[in-house]
Amino acid sequence: MAVTIPHKMEIAGLCDTLGLAARLTGAVNAVRFDADGSMHGDNFDGEGFVAGLRQQGHDPAGKDVLMVGAGGAARAIALALCEAGVGRLRISNRTSQKAGEIVSALKDLGQHSQAETAGDHDSAGVDMIVNTTSLGLHDGDRLPIALDAVDPKTLIAEIIMVPERTAWLADAEARGLPTHYGRHMLDCQIELIGGFIGALPGAA
Q1: What pLDDT digit, counting tens, does each position of 57-78 carry?
Q2: What span, in angstroms and rounded, lies between the C-alpha atoms of 197 and 203?
Q3: What is the pLDDT of residues 188-199, one digit of tens each?
Q4: Catalytic-labelled residue, pool 8, 63, 98, 153
């Protein structure tokens, strides 16, 4: 079954086993009961984001990525981007300690040395910028990061789904920058969760 806010962390604590993304974030958005009766949970925020990128023709492999934000979704997305083979992942957050915690957690996994902390000023020269903050949910929110110094080919990626076209995406499009909408993550999450719980034809 799918799990939504505010139950993601509580249900994670009830699971017998957790997938890697769920362990890293401490939250689940899907659980299933296996043949032995045990409850297994996982988090598909990151996998859904990367699948959405690929579906739209954006392969993150080898790319230099700047991620803004260091919350729960950011942890899952950082893991998925590293597993997708990004060349470098820089994490920028208002509280730099939280960004550092994600970098440390990824490196503790033993295979994600391409992650590092970054400041907002590091936006020049990157291939993709991902907003994982809540900035953009409400009218009047400041932009998560200024786009003045961004290269013309930098992909501006959002995970916010409502509003679909955030002020940040609108600003990017007004500048002629390529954009990636949050709905693509949700669309792919639905399919991934369906496969995980066995709700799709041929799913285990």
Answers
A1: 999 999 999 999 999 899 999 9
A2: 8
A3: 999 999 999 998
A4: 8
